[in-house]
Amino acid sequence: MSDPVFFPPAGPMSLAEIVTLTGARIVNGVAPERVIVNVAPLDQARASDLTFIDAPRYLPLLAETRAAACFCAPKHSASVPPGVAALETPTPYDAYVAVARRLFAVALRPALVGQGGISPAAHIDASARIEPGVTVELGAVIGANVEIGRGTVIGPGAVIGPGCRIGRDCHVAAGATLTNALLGNRVILHPGVRIGQDGFGYVMSGKGHSKVPQVGRVVIQDDVEIGANSTVDRGANRDTVIGEGTKIDNQVQIGHNVVIGRHCVIVSQVGISGSAVLGDFVVLGGKVGVNGHVTIGHGAQVAATASVKDDLAPGGRYGGAPARPIKEWYREEVALRRLAQRDIKSGPKHDEGR
C-alpha cells in the first residue's frame, strides 16, 4: 500500500502563471510553458517541483537541487544550476508562499472529517440561527440562541455555548469549545482551543479563597487565528478582546480582561496575565510571560523567554528577565559571560593558612 498524501496539490501551474502571480521574472531562458506540480525544499525537489533559496548558507543545496524552478534573489540567480528555471525576485520566500497558497489552499484551514453540510449526528438547539452554507460535523453541539454565519465550519466534537455569535467563513476545529464569545469573520480556531471559560480570579485570605464571578465576554475580531490548545479567558468585569488579524500560536494562555491589538503575533507558550494591554503589531516570542495590568506599546517586539513586568514603550525591542531594551540586555549578558570566563581562568583561590 502506498503512503497516503494528505494534501494533494491543486496544480499544475505553468511558469508563466507563476510569474503573473508573484511578479518574479525568468532570467536564464527557461521556457515559460514549463509546468510546476508541487513545491519542495532544495534538497528534496524533483523535476516538477518549485523551490526557493533565501540565504547564502543554502548555496551548496542549490548547487545540487533537481528542481524545475527556484525563486532566488538577484545575487543568487547566477548560482542556479543549468536547466533549473531561475525565478528572480527580491522576496523569494514570499513568492514561494504565494504559489504554495495557490496549490494547497486546502491546507490553510483545519481538515474536514465529513463532506460538508449539517451532520445528523450533530446536536443543534432549535433556537440556533444558522445561515445557509454552514457545515456542522458529527458530534458537534450548538447551544441555545447561537448565531452562525454562512461558510463557517464547526468541527467534530466542538461545543458552541448558548448565545455565542460566529461570523462568516470561520472554522472552529475538532474539540474546540466556545462560550460567552463573539467572533468576527474568517476566524480560525484550531483543535482543542478553549474560548470564554472563567478567568482566574479569587479573593484570597487565611480562611480560604472566594471565587470572583467572571461576567465579561471574549470578543475576537476578523481574521484572527488561534493555535491548538490555546486558551482565552472571558473578562471579569469587561471584555477580553483579540484584535483584527492577530495570529496566536499553539498553547498560549490569555487571561481575563486582556486587550490585544490588531495584527499581533504571539508565539507558543506565551502567558499573558489579566488586564494586560498590547498595542497593534506587537510580537511576543515563545515562552514570554506578561504581568497583569502592564501595557506593551504599538510595534514592540519581545524576545523569547523574556518576562515583562513593567510597561514597554512603542516600537522597541526587548529581552531578558525583567524585559529591558535588547541592546542593554545583550551588553549585560556579554559582561556576565566575561566575568564568568575570567573566574574560570583564574581558578579557585586556596587558603594557604590551612
From TrEMBL:
It holds the Pfam family LpxD. Keywords: Acyltransferase, Lipid A biosynthesis, Lipid biosynthesis, Lipid metabolism, Repeat, Transferase. It catalyses: a UDP-3-O-[(3R)-3-hydroxyacyl]-alpha-D-glucosamine + a (3R)-hydroxyacyl-[ACP] = a UDP-2-N,3-O-bis[(3R)-3-hydroxyacyl]-alpha-D-glucosamine + holo-[ACP] + H(+). Belongs to the transferase hexapeptide repeat family. LpxD subfamily. SUPFAM superfamilies: Trimeric LpxA-like enzymes. Its EC number is 2.3.1.191. This is UDP-3-O-acylglucosamine N-acyltransferase. Pathway: Bacterial outer membrane biogenesis; LPS lipid A biosynthesis. HAMAP family: LpxD (MF_00523). The gene is lpxD. Catalyzes the N-acylation of UDP-3-O-acylglucosamine using 3-hydroxyacyl-ACP as the acyl donor. Is involved in the biosynthesis of lipid A, a phosphorylated glycolipid that anchors the lipopolysaccharide to the outer membrane of the cell. The active site is at residue 256. GO terms for molecular function: UDP-3-O-[(3R)-3-hydroxyacyl]-glucosamine N-acyltransferase activity. It is an enzyme of class 2 (transferase). It comes from the Bacteria. Homotrimer. InterPro entries: Hexapep, Hexapep_transf_CS, LpxD, Trimer_LpxA-like_sf, UDP_GlcNAc_AcTrfase_non-rep. Residues 34-101 form the UDP-3-O-[3-hydroxymyristoyl] glucosamine N-acyltransferase non-repeat region domain. Transmembrane segments: none annotated. It comes from Kaistia dalseonensis.
